[in-house]
Amino acid sequence: MDLDFLLIGAQKCATTWIYHCLNEHPELYVGGGKNETYYFGGKTFDQKGLDWFEGLFSDASTYQKLGSASVDYIWDVASIELARKQYPDIKIIAALRNPVERTISAFFWLMRKNIIEDGSLEDGIRKAIDDYKSGSDTIYSELIRRSLYTDAIIELHENFEKDNIRLILFDDIQNTPKTVLHGIYSFLGVSPGYMPSSLKRKPKGNSYSSTLVYLERKMPVNKFATKVLNGISELIKISSKTKSPQLNSGLTQELSDIYKGPFGRLYNWLEENGSNDNMAIKKAKKSWNL
């Protein structure tokens, strides 16, 4: 088989929305779903091998282009390089988001999933900053580390043909989803005019509803409960009954100071090396104030 593309993340950057829009296209097939552990070169791959991985695509039609999706790809660039050696013409899709906003969104997601304690945004981000600066390897410091995807993006551009990498901005997905999707479909060489039902979905995220956080922490972990809660979250987001929380200015500045250097290097590197994503990067540089 020939693997045509990887959707690599980053986490809380609308990767799930992109996945659904890709998987609905009749000319595309994403093997294994969007499963963090089912990726080429990951631990499950190491245990089960190439035949297992390619078996994830056994139901695909011969005319469909094949892809794999996991937000853990972006933290395992060696696996992406391994995939390129196996499938030389593979293309890469990555979604990027303002790192401060991504960190806040991830905090609420972890709280909803009962992975961290139910507490205030300020207390959680304070702990994340302190743990990160002390070098502690905790779930809180990971909130910050997962926003530092800059080196991975540079490494991708150093090892792949520029025309085989497409960077997507979370802001553009929110504001002009149809245009974004048209560009992704064109990038993959399939019919760009297809309109999936997921186009109308809000990018998966957080309603920031205290009621939803409470329900999700109390309900059992199973597919039915997840489907119900995701539906409630979608309705809340569509009705705009809750707004994104505002982190106090002091903590916002501390986070920005952490991200400013790495993101400055990313902007400069991509601009100096003639990336075909210059416009997206320039837009991010201006709007993110980093």
Automatic annotation (TrEMBL):
<dbReference type="InterPro" id="IPR037359">
    <property type="entry name" value="NST/OST"/>
</dbReference>
<dbReference type="Pfam" id="PF00685">
    <property type="entry name" value="Sulfotransfer_1"/>
</dbReference>
<dbReference type="InterPro" id="IPR027417">
    <property type="entry name" value="P-loop_NTPase"/>
</dbReference>
<dbReference type="InterPro" id="IPR000863">
    <property type="entry name" value="Sulfotransferase_dom"/>
</dbReference>
<feature type="domain" description="Sulfotransferase">
    <location>
        <begin position="4"/>
        <end position="191"/>
    </location>
</feature>
<keyword id="KW-0325">Glycoprotein</keyword>
<protein>
    <recommendedName>
        <fullName>Sulfotransferase domain-containing protein</fullName>
    </recommendedName>
</protein>
<keyword id="KW-0808">Transferase</keyword>
<dbReference type="GO" id="GO:0008146">
    <property type="term" value="F:sulfotransferase activity"/>
</dbReference>
